[in-house]
Design brief:
This protein is 46% helix and 16% strand. By secondary structure, it is of the alpha/beta class. The chain folds into three domains: 54 residues, OB fold (Dihydrolipoamide Acetyltransferase, E2P), CATH 2.40.50; 182 residues, P-loop containing nucleotide triphosphate hydrolases (Rossmann fold, 3-Layer(aba) Sandwich); 83 residues, Helicase, Ruva Protein, domain 3 (Orthogonal Bundle). Helix 8 crosses helix 9. The radius of gyration is 32 Å and the shape is elongated.
Length: 375
């Protein structure tokens, strides 16, 4: 009797185990069939909605082509600018996708919060006053402009020779207003992103809005804002599209908005008048080579942390005639190196004299190279 009971129990256990194994195998087969279906399924293509015309959608494919297509039921409300998935054969929109905003512009613009103070900018008191009036005051005290009843410029154009402190001014005003500093190099925008320039300009301005208060600093403005010519190459047409998008973005800003634009160029003479007309970058600030007083101030800034011997500062300042602020900084650095080579901790007048000769020779050589290339 006991033997029959144990046999029966063993049989039931065996059947239960087989059923469990059978269920597991069925699930495995179903999963494998689902995976096999995935391999057979035609992939969907990601598109951008450019316009809505009656009950149809105008979509733009990644290759730039645009098509007017239908949308399947259940897609939901679609707006211009949304990203959607379309079936590849007839491009019917089947699904709207929500993307976390990720800017292509992040890959090449420099976004920072500068800590540069006005005390670190020397010899530019007049330019400092102008940039404070146009950029700093509207960001810090917009109500003052509303009470007076005037609209400040949307941005400014800094122009002048290289190395005179244009970028320093922009970073200093960004620091004083606690603004995000978004630096864009015009030549890189054109050279690296043929076919994408206008889109990236749009994204840069959207990035600035999202990180407001912010300052968009466009270096080498002449690369994208030179005088327009009737030339038909694809590269030049792309530059024109980028430039037109830039003008459209500037026009779309409110003067008292918490985004300001600072353009920078060494070649104001070749700029298109459209960029500097009233309502755009209409405040032009010239940043020249420093005069005697400015050179003295810049020299003092760049040598204040140095251990100096006896110097005839007046004589040195006279020797720096024609030097830019960046070149004066280079002279101070080179003078320090001359002292280090002689194993000295104090920087003497002879070190500065040697540094002036060296920097002057390097600047002259660069100028000759430039003339050989572009002269």
């Amino acid at each position: 009797m006991g033997d029959k009971s144990s046999i029966s129990y063993g049989y039931e256990t065996n059947v239960g185990g087989l059923e469990e194994e059978n269920r597991f195998l069925r699930e495995s087969v179903e999963n494998l069939e689902k995976e096999l279906d995935k391999f057979k399924r035609v992939p969907l293509i990601s598109c951008e909605v450019r316009d809505i015309i009656e009950d149809k959608l105008l979509i733009r494919l990644p290759n730039g082509n645009e098509f007017l297509v239908d949308s399947a039921e259940g897609v939901g409300k679609v707006c211009i600018g949304d990203t959607v998935l379309a079936e590849q054969k007839n491009l019917t929109v089947v699904k709207k996708i929500i993307q976390s905003r990720r800017f292509d512009a992040d890959k090449f613009v420099i976004v920072e919060k500068p800590s540069l103070s006005w005390e670190q900018v020397g010899g530019l008191k007049e330019q400092e006053r102008d940039i404070k009036e146009v950029i700093e005051l509207p960001l810090l005290k917009p109500e003052l402009f509303r009470k007076v009843g005037i609209e400040p410029p949307k941005g400014i154009l800094l122009h002048g020779p290289p190395g005179t402190g244009k970028t320093l001014l922009a970073k200093a005003v960004a620091a004083s207003t606690k603004s995000t500093f978004i630096e864009v190099v015009g030549s890189e925008l054109v050279q690296k992103f043929i076919g994408e320039g206008a889109k990236l300009v749009k994204e840069i301005f959207q990035l600035a809005r999202d990180k407001a208060p912010s300052i968009i600093f466009i270096d080498e403005m002449d690369a994208i804002a030179a005088v327009r010519m009737d030339i038909g190459t694809s590269g030049e047409r792309e530059v024109q599209r980028t430039f037109m998008q830039l003008l459209a973005e500037i026009d779309g800003f409110e003067p008292l908005a918490s985004v300001k634009i600072i353009g920078c160029t060494n070649r104001k003479d070749i700029l298109d008048p459209a960029i500097i007309r009233p309502g755009r970058l209409d405040r032009l600030i010239h940043v020249p080579l420093p005069n005697v007083e400015a050179r003295q101030e810049i020299f003092k800034i760049h040598t204040r942390n140095m251990s100096l011997g006896k110097l005839n500062v007046e004589k040195l300042i006279k020797s720096l005639d024609g030097f830019s602020g960046a070149e004066i900084k280079a002279v101070a650095t080179e003078a320090g190196y001359f002292a280090i080579r002689d194993n000295r901790t104090k920087v003497e007048e002879k070190d500065f004299t040697s540094a002036i000769v060296k920097v002057s020779a390097e600047v002259k050589l660069e100028g000759q190279d430039y003339l050989r290339m572009f002269g």
